[in-house]
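Below is how a single chain appears once it has passed through the pipeline. First comes the sequence as given, then the structure the pipeline wrote out for it. We keep one example in the README because the format questions we get most often are answered faster by looking than by reading.
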Amino acid sequence: MRVLFLSLTAVLLLAGCNKPAPAPDAADVARDEAAARMAAMSNLPAVTGQINLAGVNQLPKSEVNLELRLLDVTDPSQKPVTVEELIAPAPRRLPMDYRLPYHGEKIDQAKRYVIEAALSISGMRLYSTALPVQVLTDGHPASATLDLVSGGMTATTMSQAELTKREFGALESQLGGMRRVTGKRVEDDISVGWDAFMQDGTLRMAREQVNLDNESRVSYRYAYKTGQPWYVVRERDGITSQVAWDHEQRVILNERSDGGELDDSDVAALRARAASLADAISKG
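Resulting structure:
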């Protein structure tokens, strides 16, 4: 019996020795791989900065990935081109610092680049930048603070023009919750009525309708950001024209419902009209 007992003990010990080691945690593997990639690119220039998420200072223990993308958005009518991309396990604590290396030879100073970020689980975006931030060219630095919002928008799958149209539509859907004011202004001896919508004391949208001498009508909708014209919609003779500008007053949307575009003078006139109405509204 003693020999049998020793034999069984030896078998159990050997079985324990041959037991396969537990599989490494997937998050740890992904983190190690990301660290290796970053180390290999450590000598490259990089876009750096901080990522913030209001009201959140710690992420859940589940596998949350940080997605960073450097995009070429030179042509606002086309989907952006991904210049560099990094997907890696996200740090648990917020705010978090980030570093996205890029190959300098890919950057053309005549083009426009933005960076966007997202936090995702299994490919589903939880938070992302509402709008990407311009970097690297046009006087913009190689650093940016990225503020995330729930869901958010992505420039990756939509052109800047389409993103802007979606943002305008979202703004229109919120007018019911804003303070509405009305008034009139005189234009070429014609009294033109308008209504405007204020949010936290700031003009966000205004509308007016002009009755022309030939009994036709022209309607306008103007949206504003930081007090400047941002988006204009004009409806005249059955044709809807839409124009939008970025924060640097660069045209990012110019289209007509008949497939054409407005010429430069018409675009400038619409912007001037929007600015003129904003000035009239501010003077009460």
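Helices lie at 2-18, 26-40, 160-172, 264-282.

See the next section for the split statistics.
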